[in-house]
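Class, look over these structure tokens:
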Amino acid sequence: MLNSEKMSKSTGNFRTLRQAIEEFSSDATRFALADAGDGMDDANFVFETANAAILRLTKEIAWMEEVIAAESSLRAGPPSTYADHVFANEINIAVIETEKSYNAFMFRDALKLGFYDLQLARDEYRLSCGAAGMNRELLWRFMEVQTRLITPICPHYAEHVWRNILRKEGFAIKAGWPIAGTPDPTLRIANKYLQDSIVKFRKLLQKQESGSKKPKKGTAPPPSEQNKLTVGLVYVNENYYGWKEQCLRVLQSKFDSQARLFAPDEEINEALKNCSIGQETNFKQVQKLCMPFIKSKKDEARSVGPHALNLKLPFGEMSVLEENLELIKRQVGLEHAEVLSASDEAARAKAGVHASMLDKTPPSPGEPVAIFMSKLDLEARC
């Protein structure tokens, strides 16, 4: 397939390899061929992908040159921050998973894991570092690893980067596969939780701000600075309870931790009927809530092991959020933020009249609840 249409000389939808190389360059052609697909569907060579590859590779070269030129301004020393550890973990995962894809001749997956996903991790790292800056050691590792991972697909680009930008001896093609540390799947889950929470907080703040801008009838709107929501109280409940707790207890009893296999769905459904959930008068409604939750926890347990079925997440939610408060404030647009326990009455009292939100949508593991207010509101309650 060429641009999602059958290749045909009669319609003019046709390219020889030589023509493609002359039009896009050899590396961009190889890039688009790798992206064309490896499955049972017809491979689809897309001109737009080849053109985009030229831009991507050129921009990556420019970015690396900028990083090396400003190397003295990067943070020195070994990786130490939360963002550092997350980025290092993503690099390790990319090395291991990309190798698996190459060995299976799944070149589209290799391109996704070793180039696209790795660049997304780099971009997220850049945003997460803030004023502290990126770690010099990690950026050098990223540039070297990414170059080695893309070498089988874009060898000319890789050799240029290896010799002329990274100033390495020899050839990238002979440098061997990069060595990776042991990936930490729990850290990856914790970072996804953090990033998802930030997106959720930002949307919630925008919704709350749009609602607070509508003045009541007969009253003048308050001054914008006083009305501005710049304080965020994040409430966390690290333990499951109610029907979620019962679901987890059933899954724990039906999970083979050695083989990472669950009992058949029929057995799990029968166990649900026999526990306290089955005694509910509205069992059918509760069961509808249970099924997506059970599926999610089963997938997680197969990935990270039996601790995914614990009555709390495999990481400390409060510690993750507290360690990244500066990132949360910066990305959500807050001047002050606190992470509080939903079970602490004194902490709940800080929310004042907004505390009712914690009853309407109670926080649960993986689902923190944020309440936003102005500085004046917070000072009035302290």
